[in-house]
Structures are given as structure tokens and as C-alpha cells.
């Protein structure tokens, strides 16, 4: 891996610096505001955890490494997106340090995949559920939405409402950070590629 | 709850602290006598008896000040159960019912009168009655309280427990300090009893709460007991005019927690300021999570496309002029917040300029990913890039997120040249189409 990294472009190594510079301004205010909470839980709040500069830096560097590593192992033709997304989710889960349910679920999913192939059992249950829901009167609106939300947040299907809200807040904060990092990453990659391409084009 | 409830350390010692010295002297004498007995027999019951007699004397002779008790009552929640315990005991002395945990200070005032009445009885009889009734009632009460509080505790988070523990430790430490200031033996007596009660009513078999220990050690044991105790219970006071049922209290705690977390989510999810009610909030949350996940999907697609550049240094056909054009445009784009149509309109001139700049641009897509709409990708992508980077500097994150979200939705729309007339927020359909095309 070290050799691979050394072979990479210099521009890619400059990426974290550029990322840091861009992110500093936006995160300072949120951090200071949140840490003056005074509840004693300020450091545990999702926004504090996920909006710090360090968190972004850690995530971006880890993501870069993981992406480079995944590039090494040749990827299937049409499934690059999925692979990248799963890599990104996995790195996000790792960055969560296992304190949240959804992060553990994401990592467990991957571990399970590596060991055993997924069985297609849930589909049968889904069909039955659909039929039943048509016959039955609908659940109260709130409960339905709670179910939808629990399906959205990984690993939170059978979690109480209270914990689901907590997991959802942390998950949202993590997703926001993921989106920001990936945006800047892709932008930088494009810029870097563009700069290199133009430089190469002009020189030749 | 019992753990806290039976920390009479707070109540008894404070009361002693507030009393006259004459009372203390009398207590000391009595305590010495009792200590001798205890050292001989070492039984809990005797301690209880002595404790009650002291209390009875305290109430009766000291002319107990309401202020002292109310001051203790109004302090943090932890000592209250201690007082409650005294209250219970006093009640049992008189034969009253239990139900004090959630009463306010008024309840205690009633007890004073009750105790003063009974204190005229010979202390031993009173103590015997007290001892006999206390245990039965305490067990009953403990079951009742623990059932209610157990539910509360089960729903608690660790931080609360830690806070509770720390509070208890702090309280007990302060009490212990005062103990040392006062007649030490008397206080040590009571702390020992408190320790015994704690050990008895906890499920932790703390043999170090023996009566043999000195006051110094008992104070440490107090803190130890409180620290090592099972995760404890959040204390809730019934507000004025509200039900004092343990069920309803637990429900109220739960509801408050839910509302607190919903408020937090409201801050997190943009555009939820005006929405009240769980259903609407949940809708917004679900939409936001879905949009975030879609964005991640889109970005991963982009990254997958751009990834080869990491290693292979593929020539990028992006014209450099594209960026100045974008840079001119994005201030206008950046200023619009909560946009649907404004961004839409502003994107149009930007898009046209970019089209002019990079007409033949293949953009980021590597050769192996056939791109049908050549202009769509470069148009949408640089705008989102630069807008996002610009936004991180100019806008606070919540607005940025909203803008980014809007931008992405609009960008998806813009990507399809045939869809200029459609609404920006077509969401997943556009995104999936764009993905398929790319």
C-alpha cells in the first residue's frame, strides 16, 4: 500500500490540505456553539462528533485510502457505484467507532457478507406483509413513519422509538459529513484530473 | 429509587446540623450508650431504634425549623429521598400511609407535627413500633417505587446514570464533610445506619458497610456505595396539578425525552422550524435521510467515475475556462437560499455559459462509462463542486445543507436537457434516470 500511495499523484496528497482549508471556517462556529452547551453531554452530541474538523479529516483520509485500495482490487464493470458507496459507508461506520447502532450494523453487514451469502428469506415475509397491510386497517400515521425511518437507518428495525430518534440524529449528522467530504473529494479529484490533463495537453 | 430513597444521610445529618447543641449533646450521650450496645450485639434493629429515637428527639426538642428542611428539599433531587425516608419512617411511627416520594416540602411539615405528638411516648415503644412497621412498609414501598423507577431506569442512558452517581457522590461527600464538622460520633452512627440501609435495600451485598468502621471510612463507603451502586434512577417530581402515579411519571419522563430528541432533530434537519408534531417531523426526517442517501449514491457514482484519475492520471477534457465561468456564477447561486425557482433560473445562464465553454467536454467520465449526455455531467458537476466549496465558506452548515440538497435536486433536473420545464424537486426519478444515462 505504501508503494501504491507513493505512486499516486502529488495532487491527491495535497487533497487533505485543501480539504482542511476549506472546511475550517464552517466548522469553527458550530463547534464552539455546541461545546458551550453546559449539559455535560456536549462532546457526545452527534453534531459535535460529526462536524469537527478532525472528524472530517479522519474520514477523508480513510476514505481515500479505502478507495485506492478498492481500485487495486478490480471492480466489476457495472457495480462501481455500489462498491464506492459501500466503501464510503463502511469507512463512515468505522469513523463512528462503534458507539452507535447503525455503525455496528453496517460493519456487521459486511462481515456477514464475507462469511455467508445472504439468504433470500425476507422477500417472502415482505409479500405477506403487503397483503396483510392491504386487508388490515392502516396503522397510525406516526407508527408507519417510524417503521419507514427504522428501515432507512441501518440496523434499527426493532429499536424503540426513543433510541431510534437518537440513532437517526447521529446517522443524519454522519451522512451530512459523508456528503460534504465526498463532494469535496470528487471536486478535488476532478480538479486534479483537470489540472493534470490540461497541463499534459498543453505541454505536448 | 430505593438506593436514593434510603440515603437518609442527607436528611438525618442535615437535620442534626441545624439543631441546637443541647440536642446534640443529649444525642451524644445516648449514642455512646447505644454504641456500647451495638458493639456487643451488632444488629440492625438496634440501630434503627436508636436512629428513630434520635430523630424523634430532634423533631420534638429542637423545634425543627421548616427552613432547614425546605432548604434541603429544594436542593438537588438526590437528598430528597433521604428526607423521604425520614418521612416514611416518621409516618410509620404515626401509622400514616406512604406515598411521600413525590410530595413537596409540605408533606414534611405535616410530619413534624405528627412526630412531635408521638415523641412524648417512651422512646423505646416508639422505636419498637417504628422498627416493626418500617421494615414491612419499606419493603412494600421499595417494591412500589422500584417498579415505577425501574421502568425509568431501564430507559436511561448511561450518561444520566453517571451524572446521577456523580451527584450522589457529591452530595454524600458534602454531607460527610458536615458530619465531620458536627459531632462525629453521632453522625457516624447515622451514616453507619444509612450505609446499612443502603446495603440492605441495595442488592449489592456491601459488607464494608459494617458498623465497625469509623466516620472517615463510612464517608468513603458512602461514596463507594453510591458510585458502585447499580445504575440508578432519575428522580422526577410530580409537577403541580399533575398525576403522581408512578406510571404517569414514567410516561412523562419518556415523553420529555422524546420531545427533547425531536427538538434536537429539528435543529439537525433543515426546514423543520415551522413543523410541529411528530408526524410532520418524522416526514421531514425521512425525506431528509432519503435525500442524503441519494446524494451519497450520486457522489459515489461520481467518485467511482473519477477514481481512475487517482491512479491512471487520465486526461481530463475539462476546459479551464469552465471554472472562471462557474466562479462568476456561483455567487449569485450561493446567495439564494431555500430556492426552487430562483436557483432554477440562475442555473440556466450558468449552464449556458458552461455549455459554451465545454461543448465537447467529456468531463469526468472515463472512456469505459459511455456518457450520452455529454454536456449534462460537466454542467451539473462543476456547479455543485464550486457551490459546495463556496458554501462551506460562506454559509452556516444548516443553510449549506439545505442549499446543497436543493442544488443536487436542481442539478439532477438540469442534467437532463429535456427537462428544463419540470419542477426542480423531482427527486429520485431524475436521479435514477441520470444514473442510468451516465
Cα distance spanning the termini of chain B: 62 Å
Given the helix and strand composition of chain A, which structural class is it? mainly alpha
The Rg value of chain A, from CA coordinates, equals 21 Å
Shape descriptor of chain A reads globular
Following the backbone from N to C, one meets helices and strands of chain A in this order, namely HHHHHHHHH
By helix and strand content of chain B, what is the structural category?
mainly alpha
Explain the overall architecture.
The complex is a heterodimer of chains A (204) and B (438). Chain A is mainly α and 204 residues long. Chain A has helices spanning 2-7, 10-35, 46-51, 53-72, 80-95, 101-115, 122-135, 141-152, 161-203. Chain A is built from nine helices and no strands. Chain B is mostly helical. Chain B has 18 helices and no strands. At the A-B interface, α2, α3, α4, α5 and α8 of A face α12, α13, α16 and α17 of B. Chain A: Residues 1-17, 27-55 have a biased composition (Polar residues). Chain A: GO terms for molecular function: protein dimerization activity; transcription cis-regulatory region binding.
Amino acid at each position: 500500500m505504501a508503494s501504491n500511495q507513493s505512486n499516486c499523484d502529488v495532487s491527491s496528497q495535497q487533497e487533505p490540505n485543501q480539504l482542511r482549508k476549506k472546511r475550517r471556517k464552517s466548522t469553527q462556529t458550530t463547534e464552539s456553539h455546541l461545546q458551550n452547551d453546559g449539559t455535560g453531554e456536549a462532546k457526545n452530541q452527534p453534531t459535535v462528533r460529526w462536524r469537527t474538523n478532525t472528524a472530517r479529516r479522519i474520514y477523508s483520509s480513510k476514505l481515500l485510502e479505502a478507495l485506492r485500495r478498492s481500485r487495486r482490487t478490480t471492480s466489476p464493470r457495472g457495480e462501481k457505484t455500489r462498491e464506492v458507496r459501500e466503501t464510503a459507508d463502511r469507512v463512515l461506520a468505522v469513523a463512528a467507532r462503534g458507539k452507535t447502532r447503525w455503525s455496528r450494523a453496517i460493519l456487521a453487514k459486511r462481515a456477514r457478507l464475507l462469511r455467508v451469502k445472504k439468504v433470500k428469506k425476507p422477500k417472502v415475509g415482505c409479500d405477506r406483509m403487503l397483503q396483510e397491510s392491504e386487508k388490515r386497517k392502516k396503522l397510525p400515521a406516526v407508527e408507519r413513519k417510524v417503521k419507514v425511518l427504522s428501515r432507512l437507518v441501518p440496523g434499527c428495525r426493532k429499536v424503540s422509538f426513543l433510541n431510534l430518534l437518537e440513532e437517526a440524529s447521529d446517522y443524519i449528522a454522519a451522512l451530512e459529513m459523508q456528503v460534504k467530504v465526498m463532494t469535496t473529494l470528487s471536486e478535488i479529484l476532478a480538479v486534479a484530473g483537470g489540472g493534470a490533463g490540461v497541463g499534459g495537453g498543453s505541454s505536448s | 429509587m430505593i438506593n436514593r430513597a434510603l440515603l437518609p444521610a442527607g436528611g438525618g445529618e442535615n437535620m442534626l446540623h441545624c439543631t441546637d447543641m443541647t440536642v446534640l449533646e443529649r444525642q451524644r450521650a445516648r449514642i455512646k450508650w447505644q454504641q456500647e450496645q451495638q458493639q456487643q450485639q451488632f444488629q440492625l434493629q438496634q440501630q434503627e431504634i436508636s436512629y428513630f429515637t434520635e430523630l424523634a428527639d430532634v423533631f420534638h426538642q429542637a423545634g425543627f425549623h421548616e427552613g432547614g428542611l425546605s432548604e434541603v428539599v429544594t436542593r438537588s433531587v438526590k437528598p430528597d429521598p433521604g428526607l423521604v425516608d425520614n418521612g416514611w419512617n416518621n409516618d410509620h411511627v404515626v401509622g400514616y400511609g406512604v406515598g411521600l416520594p413525590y410530595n413537596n416540602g409540605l408533606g414534611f411539615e405535616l410530619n413534624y407535627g405528627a412526630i412531635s405528638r408521638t415523641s412524648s411516648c417512651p422512646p423505646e415503644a416508639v422505636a419498637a413500633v417504628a422498627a416493626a412497621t418500617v421494615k414491612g412498609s419499606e419493603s412494600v414501598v421499595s417494591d412500589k417505587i422500584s417498579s415505577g423507577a425501574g421502568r425509568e431506569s431501564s430507559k436511561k442512558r448511561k450518561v444520566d446514570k453517571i451524572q446521577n452517581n456523580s451527584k450522589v457522590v457529591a452530595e454524600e461527600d458534602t454531607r460527610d464533610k458536615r458530619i465531620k464538622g458536627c459531632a462525629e460520633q453521632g453522625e457516624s452512627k447515622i451514616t453507619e445506619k444509612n450505609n446499612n440501609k443502603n446495603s440492605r435495600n441495595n442488592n449489592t451485598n456491601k459488607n464494608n458497610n459494617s458498623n465497625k468502621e469509623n466516620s472517615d471510612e463510612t464517608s468513603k463507603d458512602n461514596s463507594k456505595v453510591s458510585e458502585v451502586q447499580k445504575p440508578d434512577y432519575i428522580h422526577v417530581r410530580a409537577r403541580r396539578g399533575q398525576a403522581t402515579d408512578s406510571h404517569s411519571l414514567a410516561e412523562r419522563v419518556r415523553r420529555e425525552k422524546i420531545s427533547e430528541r425531536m427538538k434536537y432533530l429539528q435543529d439537525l434537519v433543515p426546514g423543520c422550524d415551522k413543523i410541529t408534531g411528530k408526524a410532520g417531523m418524522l416526514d421531514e426526517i425521512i425525506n431528509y435521510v432519503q435525500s442524503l442517501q441519494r446524494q451519497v449514491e450520486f457522489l459515489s457514482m461520481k467518485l467511482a467515475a473519477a477514481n481512475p484519475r487517482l491512479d491512471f492520471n487520465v486526461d481530463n477534457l475539462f476546459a479551464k475556462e469552465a471554472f472562471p465561468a462557474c466562479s462568476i456564477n456561483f455567487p449569485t447561486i450561493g446567495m439564494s437560499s431555500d430556492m426552487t425557482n430562483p436557483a432554477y433560473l440562475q442555473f440556466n445562464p450558468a449552464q449556458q455559459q458552461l455549455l459554451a465553454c465545454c461543448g465537447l467536454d467529456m468531463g469526468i467520465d472515463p472512456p469505459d462509462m459511455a456518457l450520452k449526455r455529454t454536456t449534462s455531467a460537466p454542467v451539473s458537476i462543476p456547479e455543485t463542486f464550486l457551490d459546495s466549496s463556496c458554501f462551506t465558506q460562506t454559509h452556516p452548515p444548516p443553510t449549506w445543507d439545505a442549499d446543497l440538497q436543493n442544488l443536487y435536486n436542481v442539478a439532477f433536473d438540469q442534467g437532463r436537457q429535456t427537462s428544463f420545464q419540470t419542477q426542480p424537486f423531482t427527486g429520485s426519478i431524475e436521479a435514477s434516470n441520470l444514473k442510468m444515462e451516465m
